[in-house]
Amino acid sequence: MNLPPKVTERAFDRLAEIGAEGQALRVAVEGGGCSGFQYDIKLDAVADDDLVLEDKGQRVVIDPTSLPFLAGAVIDFSEELIGARFTIDNPNVTASCGCGTSFSI
């Protein structure tokens, strides 16, 4: 059985700070990049067939096509000296490219 993706409290807190009323953080897996797949993370409307992960009034959505690629993944938010970003710790990734923007499953 595939575990559903999880979203950390820190990621939900960051979404609340952004204040994107009526929108959710969409996490999708698309074909592309030098290793075959890449993430597309953006604010977007919720579609009827999305998986909705919700806490504190904030929502993260994943489309049905991306869901199997994100089984068991943890969506987080990271702040470092070089910048801040949403991150994905995905146990399904078998390799990634040198620049870290694409991966294979």
Automatic annotation (TrEMBL):
A molecular-function term among this protein's GO annotations: 2 iron, 2 sulfur cluster binding
Core domain mapped to chain residues: 6-100
A GO CC term assigned to this protein in UniProt: iron-sulfur cluster assembly complex
InterPro entries associated with the record: ATAP, ATAP_core_dom, FeS_cluster_insertion_CS, HesB-like_dom_sf
UniProt-listed Pfam families: Fe-S_biosyn (PF01521)
GO BP term, pick one: iron-sulfur cluster assembly
Domain of life: Bacteria
Keywords from the named record: Iron, Metal-binding
Stored NCBIfam families: iron-sulfur cluster assembly accessory protein
Protein name as annotated: Iron-sulfur cluster insertion protein ErpA
Originating species: Pseudooceanicola marinus
Organism classification: Bacteria, Pseudomonadati, Pseudomonadota, Alphaproteobacteria, Rhodobacterales
